[in-house]
Design goal:
single chain, mainly beta, eight-stranded mixed β-sheet, seven-stranded mixed β-sheet, 27 strands, 1% helix, 48% strand
């Protein structure tokens, strides 16, 4: 790993020193000292990178980790961070917090074991890609040669945000001093920011799939039956803007020797009144050995709304007793949306095992 030391520019005001890193590229991984800090310097290293974390509207999300240590007892009075990314920080981020990760797990903890707020009042961005200064009250002591303290920068996002915009943060300054009033410096490794290679965390939106009220349990159908219900599910979209459902991929299990030729006219229906009845035909496809795919749905789910869908198939007249099928909405990416970053929570949703049963013919 390449270690890059930073040139430090210091403006002394009274007994305080404003320390701004002038860093090149590079990155820091989680851990303790990579090299001992110089006397009288705070040592800052990036913890786990959160560039690949999934962001959702309304989430409270760790966006940046800082590991802070020193070879002397030093005090940190302020920390300055700058927002990054294509999203509008002032409009999209409801609040920004700085907390101590008390159990050192890299996660924001609440409740009885809540992480400690060290940043004072909750802050907000006043402009896109603007800066926030946290005035630490009380100032945080970094003890000599102790284990690094893990500080977490936390964004709380607004509830109704579009997908595809990126967010991150960069540490741009620290105001530090010795306990006796002397100025202190900062030794940094690389660039302490989300996504050190320019890759930032991306906002996504989630639809919610649930088992429908008429989802079939394990059941039977007679050979030759048309439009046999295989799966009934609800899909909700909790955001203001509408979204279009374009495609649907389902997992298939053929039962007891059944083959794809045993099924005809696999259909996807909109069940507008959620009664389990086939109403508006959305698309048709063929049965697959392990999956089936509806490629031409083009149905709008209204913002804040919920729609119900029904999957049916016709059982062939030549099906043998107990041959059948089960279909499942198995994956979070099983539904394709007009919002390319949207995905589906609540999966898997499975229909029952539906098997053919031939009627018993009485012989007289």
């Amino acid at each position: 790993m390449t270690i890059i030391r930073c040139m430090v520019m210091v403006w002394v005001v009274g007994i305080l020193a404003l320390v701004l890193p002038a860093c090149g590229g590079g990155g820091g991984g989680a851990g303790s000292f990579l090299s001992p800090p110089s006397s009288g310097e705070v040592f800052v290293q990036e913890g786990a990178d959160h560039a690949d974390d999934m962001l959702l509207p309304g989430d409270e999300t760790v966006i940046l980790e800082m590991l802070v240590s020193s070879s002397d007892d030093l005090l940190v009075d302020t920390i300055t961070i700058q927002g990054l990314g294509t999203g509008n920080d002032a409009a999209d981020i409801e609040s920004v917090q700085l907390v101590e990760d008390t159990d050192n797990d890299g996660q924001l903890d609440k409740g009885l074991l809540a992480d400690k707020d060290i940043g004072g009042v909750t802050r907000v961005f006043t402009g896109d890609n603007g800066s926030i200064i946290f005035f630490l009250n009380p100032p945080q002591t970094i003890h000599d040669n102790a284990a690094a303290r893990r500080w977490l920068l936390v964004y709380t996002f607004n509830d109704d945000l579009p997908s595809g915009f990126s967010y991150g943060a960069m540490l741009t300054g620290m105001q530090t001093r010795t306990p006796f009033g002397g100025s202190a410096g900062t030794d940094m490794i690389g660039s302490i920011q989300t996504g050190d290679g320019g890759n930032l965390a991306i906002m996504r939106r989630a639809a919610e799939a649930d088992e429908g009220s008429a989802n079939p349990a394990n059941g039977i159908a007679e050979p030759g039956d048309d439009d046999v219900p295989l799966l009934h599910f609800d899909l909700s979209w909790p955001y203001t803007q509408d979204v279009t459902v374009n495609t649907l991929a389902l997992e298939v299990e053929l039962l007891n020797g059944a083959s794809i030729g045993d099924f005809d006219d696999v259909k996807l229906w909109l069940d507008a009144d959620n009664d389990g009845e086939a109403e508006t035909l959305l698309d048709t496809t063929g049965m697959g050995t392990s999956s089936l795919f509806f490629a031409g749905i083009d149905h709008d789910v209204q913002g804040g709304g919920e729609d119900s869908f029904l999957v049916t198939a016709s059982f062939g007249a030549g099906m043998l007793d107990q041959e059948g099928v089960q279909v499942t909405l198995a994956e979070s990416d099983g539904i394709g949306y007009s919002d390319a970053f949207a995905f589906t929570e609540g999966t898997p949703v499975a229909g029952g095992e539906i098997v053919a049963t031939r009627p018993v013919v009485a012989v007289i």
